[in-house]
UniProtKB/TrEMBL annotation:
Protein name: Ribosome maturation factor RimP
Compartment(s) of residence: Cytoplasm
PANTHER family: RIBOSOME MATURATION FACTOR RIMP (PTHR33867:SF1)
Sequence similarity: Belongs to the RimP family.
Record organism: Actinophytocola oryzae
GO biological process entries: ribosomal small subunit assembly; translation
InterPro entries linked: Ribosome_maturation_RimP (IPR003728), RimP_C (IPR028998), RimP_N (IPR028989), RimP_N_sf (IPR035956)
Keywords for the protein's UniProt record, in alphabetical order: Cytoplasm, Ribosome biogenesis
Ribosome maturation factor RimP N-terminal domain ranges (all copies): 19-91
Protein function: Required for maturation of 30S ribosomal subunits.
Keyword hit for Cytoplasm: yes
A GO cellular-component term linked to this record: cytosol
């Protein structure tokens, strides 16, 4: 689960180390490389992320570095290609500790082998995450979670929820 990178597309496995190194030089992490034929050219889709997310200016910087890296390794892509660099969408499953850290205080839908529930995300570390489930704090290891995604909500978390997740005195 954590630390695993999604790999798809025909030439993706060969390109991945080259692309990952370029993305790392920019200070971000490679989430996915996908290569597909698009007419006479190939579409190379690169999904990148970081602990603090990634903005449009940073996507442009990463795109330039990845393009330079691909151009210097043209043996991996025969002919013309189109490069698309993007960040993961909101509906991306939470699969790595940094995904959970970025989701702090967000509402998430969690599925385990035994249950499915909504929770609010608290502190996350390399082994697991603290979740507020029905007003109770619950520590879960990532291995216990089959699937989790952020739920779109239109209101801020309540002061009581924030206090509980912050472990403040008198919050219970």
């Amino acid at each position: 689960m954590p630390g695993q990178r999604e790999r798809t597309g025909g030439g993706s496995e060969r390109l991945e180390p080259v692309v990952a190194a370029a993305v790392a030089r920019a200070g971000y992490e490679l989430e996915q490389v996908h290569v597909q034929q698009a007419g006479r050219t190939q579409l190379v889709k690169v999904v990148v992320d970081g602990d603090d997310g990634i903005g449009l200016d940073e996507v442009a910087d990463v795109s330039r570095l990845v393009s330079e890296a691909l151009d210097s390794h043209d043996e991996f892509l025969a002919g013309a290609y189109t490069l698309e660099v993007t960040s993961p969408g909101l509906d991306r499953p939470l699969t790595r500790p940094r995904h959970w850290r970025r989701a702090r205080l967000r509402k998430v839908s969690v599925r385990t082998p035994e249950d499915k529930f909504l929770a609010r995300v608290g502190d996350a570390d390399e082994e697991g995450v603290e979740l507020l489930v029905d007003g109770q704090l619950r520590r879960m290891g990532y291995a216990e979670i089959d699937h989790a995604v952020i739920e779109v909500e239109f209101k801020e978390p309540s002061a009581a929820e924030i206090a509980k997740l912050a472990h403040e005195e008198g919050s219970g």
